[in-house]
Every structure is written in structure tokens, then in C-alpha cells.
Design a protein that fits this description.
three-stranded antiparallel sheet, 3 domains, binds magnesium ion, binds adenosine-5'-triphosphate, Phosphorylase Kinase, domain 1, six-stranded mixed sheet, ATP-binding, Transferase(Phosphotransferase), domain 1
Length: 366
């Protein structure tokens, strides 16, 4: 959505997100999960259990820009179509968690998906701590999922430990594919990075160095419009940062200033605390400054078969666990994913539960 939205979206202090959740019938606000200005994330309950609702508060009707807002409010049709297409691409890929429902109302856009027990950032510091083989299992799932996504030409764009969700049996679910975030960012304007990529305010940077461009905001905006395509090398870099954090007990390897120094060759993260040399070598390759030096996810899986990853991950465990866990992500068919505008209907179809068909007009109280 580019820089324009970052200037238009109301700040957390000026709005009460619960008021937006209250307008969804049968959805009960529980607790906010994030402090992001961009999308407000809230844990809620509905008839089927715990869910996560991400709310995009639309700029007021009086505000106008070239990116879809007009007198009737900010229009999301373009993004709804893109999310629908993304969701169709994700069906049948293991270890991903797409949004199950989208609501585009006049005052806000809502993205809804099931609540998952942990994210990777929290799980690393929760007892019982992850055993070495569990860490390898998590890395294997992430690489395997990336290999399948990249083979389909789908790129995540914002891989980080908060976007890797984990069930209590360590099944990974990658969430929040960043199709509405800018690909390129101006080096001179960290506020755009903070708005889109630092929602947890940990000041950690997982964004590949080649995505920072030494141009002004307007030029970068143009670049994003003209040539703003993600690629697999960008995801591999972010994945390298995630894996490093997993092995460094939640210690991130890049802050934003360190990323700029890394680009200039003045900083290199310290990976000495990782005692598995193969893991360390793999991370170093993934975070290569030159994107061409990074390997594909499939190549890492092949290269480290039987050294990092035991053979039974490939021959048995992943398929077996996917069969057991798959119902979380495969909500029967793509037809049950419903993007709906003000007058249409809503269907909930996650966790393999039967979906309820609800008239949308009765969901929003206004
Ligand atoms: N479906 C979910 N189940 C459980 N926790 C979730 C779920 N979705 C998000 N979270 C957690 O809620 C918190 C806020 O999520 P949110 O996605 O808003 O922030 P983020 O992941 O830091 O940023 P981004 O918007 O860039 O993805 C994070 O800690 C995230 O891991
Ligand atoms: Mg997220």
C-alpha cells in the first residue's frame, strides 16, 4: 500500500480497536496481541473458539489519496482479490496459515484466522526449552514450506519469528504473507520500516539488505510501483535471520542500524554461540550480502540431508505430521474462503469445523 497509507492510518492512541471488534456480531474482544500502527491484531472468541482478528482502520472519508480512498471510504477490493489469489495458491502447501475470512466494511477491513498456541519468538523462551532435534524439526518445516512456496512463485516478504506460529506439538504455521507491504524501503526514512516491519517494536530487522534503497521516498515509491517484486533470495535472507535467532536463544542478529552497517561491510553478526557448525554454515550462506550467493530452500534441504536433518524427516515424519495437522490449514475447499463486501455473506470454515453461513448485514451493527 506504500507510503501513503502509513501517513493516513490513525494512530493506536486515537482509536479504540475494541469498538471496531464490537461491530462484528458474535465476535468477542479478548486481548490485543500487537502494538502495530498498521494492522491492529486482537485475540477474540467466536462460537468456534479463539480467533485472531487483524483490523485495518480505514482513513476517514474526508481524506483522499490516489490509492483507493474516496468519499465512500478507503476501498480494499484490490487487496481482497490479491488475498484471495494468495489463499488459493497456499491450499495444499503444508505449514502455512492463510486468512480464512476477510471483511471489507466502510470503516475498517478485517482479516480473520484461527488462534495458534505459540509464535516462535515466544516458544524459544518458554519451558520446556526446545531440544536440538526439535529446533532442527522446526527449521526443516520452514525450509520445506519455503521450497514449495517458491516453486509456486509465492514469496512471503516478512518472515520473522512472530510470523512463525507453532502448535503445542511443534507444527509450524507461517502466517502474514506481506503482499501489502512495500518491497523496497528508503534507507533514509526508518519510519516506513517501523510502520510496516517493526510492529513488535523490538527494532529487529529481518528485511534483506537489497530491499533498502539509497533514494528518497518518492523515488522508492516509484520503484515499488514499477518493479516491486519480491523474490526467493529475499525470503531466504529473512529465514536465515529467523534460524539464527532460534539458535541464539532469541537474540536477533540485525537491528536496523546494524543492517545498514552490514550493507557497508562494517558489521557481521556473531554466530559463535551456535555450536552446530553445519547450522552456522547454513545461516552464513542464507544471510550472504550478495543475493546470488544464497541457495534455494530446496538446495539447503538437499545439501544438509543426513548432516543437519535426519533422513526420516524427509521419508516419513513430515508427511505423517502433515496428515495429522493438515486439517488446521486445509479448510476443505477454496470455495469456503469468502471475501465479502458490505452486502455479502460470511463463512467460517477453519479447523475442519463445519462452516456457518451468516448474513453479513447482520454481522455489522452499523
Ligand atoms: N493466529 C495467531 N495465533 C496466535 N498468535 C498470533 C496469531 N497471529 C498473530 N499472532 C501473534 O500476535 C502478535 C501480533 O501479531 P501481528 O501479526 O500483528 O504482529 P507481527 O507479526 O509482529 O507483525 P506483522 O503485522 O508484520 O505480521 C505476534 O506476537 C504474533 O505472533
Ligand atoms: Mg504477524
Amino acid at each position: 500500500m506504500g507510503a501513503e497509507l502509513s501517513l493516513l492510518v490513525p494512530t493506536a492512541q486515537t482509536i479504540a480497536v475494541s469498538a471496531y471488534i464490537d461491530s462484528l456480531k458474535d465476535v468477542q474482544y479478548t486481548v490485543p496481541l500487537g502494538t502495530s500502527r498498521f494492522l491492529k491484531t486482537v485475540k477474540c472468541v467466536d462460537k468456534s473458539g479463539s480467533i485472531v482478528v487483524k483490523v485495518l482502520i480505514k482513513p476517514g472519508p474526508s481524506t483522499s489519496n490516489n490509492n483507493g480512498s474516496n468519499e465512500d471510504g478507503f476501498k480494499l477490493e484490490y487487496w481482497v482479490t490479491k488475498l484471495d489469489k494468495l489463499r488459493q495458491g497456499l491450499i495444499s502447501i503444508p505449514n502455512v496459515l492463510p486468512f480464512e475470512s476477510i471483511i471489507d466494511s466502510q470503516r475498517a477491513g478485517y482479516l480473520i484466522r484461527p488462534y495458534v498456541r505459540y509464535n516462535l519468538y515466544d516458544r524459544v523462551s518458554v519451558r520446556p526449552f526446545l531440544e536440538p532435534i526439535e529446533k532442527k524439526w522446526i527449521v526443516y518445516q520452514l525450509l520445506s514450506s519455503m521450497a514449495k512456496l517458491h516453486a509456486k512463485g509465492i514469496y512471503h516478504g516478512d518472515l520473522k519469528t512472530e510470523n512463525v506460529l507453532l502448535t503445542s506439538w511443534n507444527w509450524c504455521l507461517i502466517s502474514d504473507f506481506a503482499i501489502f507491504k512495500p518491497v523496497f524501503l528508503p534507507e533514509g526514512n526508518p519510519s516506513l520500516f517501523s510502520f510496516y516491519f517493526d510492529s513488535s517494536q523490538r527494532h529487529v530487522c529481518y528485511v534483506a539488505p537489497e530491499r533498502f534503497v539509497a533514494s528518497d521516498d518518492a523515488e522508492v515509491e516509484e520503484l515499488n510501483k514499477a518493479n516491486g517484486e519480491l523474490n526467493w533470495q529475499m525470503d531466504i535472507f529473512s529465514l536465515g535471520c529467523v534460524i539464527a535467532e532460534l539458535y541464539l536463544e532469541s537474540l536477533p542478529i540485525f537491528t536496523l542500524p546494524q543492517m545498514f552497517k552490514f550493507k557497508r561491510g562494517e558489521y557481521y553478526p556473531n554466530l559463535d554461540a551456535i555450536d552446530d557448525l553445519n547450522i552456522s554454515k547454513m545461516i552464513q550462506s542464507m544471510i550472504s550480502l550478495k543475493a546470488d550467493d544464497r541457495l534455494t530452500a530446496k538446495e539447503y534441504l538437499t545439501r544438509y540431508r543426513k548432516t543437519i536433518f535426519p533422513d526420516y524427516f524427509y521419508t516419513f515424519l513430515h508427511t505423517y505430521m502433515n496428515n495429522i495437522s493438515g486439517s488446521i490449514t486445509e479448510s476443505e475447499s477454496v470455495n469456503q474462503f469468502t471475501c465479502f463486501n458490505d452486502t455479502n455473506e460470511v463463512r467460517h470454515a477453519w479447523n475442519g469445523r463445519p462452516y456457518a453461513k451468516i448474513n453479513f448485514s447482520s454481522i455489522l451493527t452499523k
